[in-house]
Amino acid sequence: MRLYFDTSTLVAAFVQGHPHSGPALQCLEDMVSQKHQGYTSVHSLAEVYAVLTRAPFQPRITPAIAWRLLEENILPILELVTLTAAEYQQVIQNCAAGQHTGGRTYDAIHLHCALKVDCDKLYTLNVRDFRALAPDPFQSRIVTP
Known about the structure:
This protein is α/β, with parallel strands linked by helices and 145 residues long.
């Protein structure tokens, strides 16, 4: 099974006390134990780092700790999906055509990466937003942890 993890799911998995921490972490652990293939976007590395180091989590997550979380818990288990310049242009063009603005642009990047690797499930805490961007046949693959 091919599983894609968006930023919201990864952040939840790493932050104790996050309301979705347990299920998000369990999805990652199940992926590893059941030997499924996991993916996230290269863009997600920057997003996860930015959120972990800026959000008012208690205790605070320092840049060094955030990097360690990425290095030890994402890089060894998730394959990073990259987009070409042409694919980024297509994502932005699709957003413009669909009148999508702001943070939905980042959701569209994740969605394009998940489609690129033909994942069986895309884990996100923003199911409604992702389904609004996704083609019909793919919408049912978008789930919450």
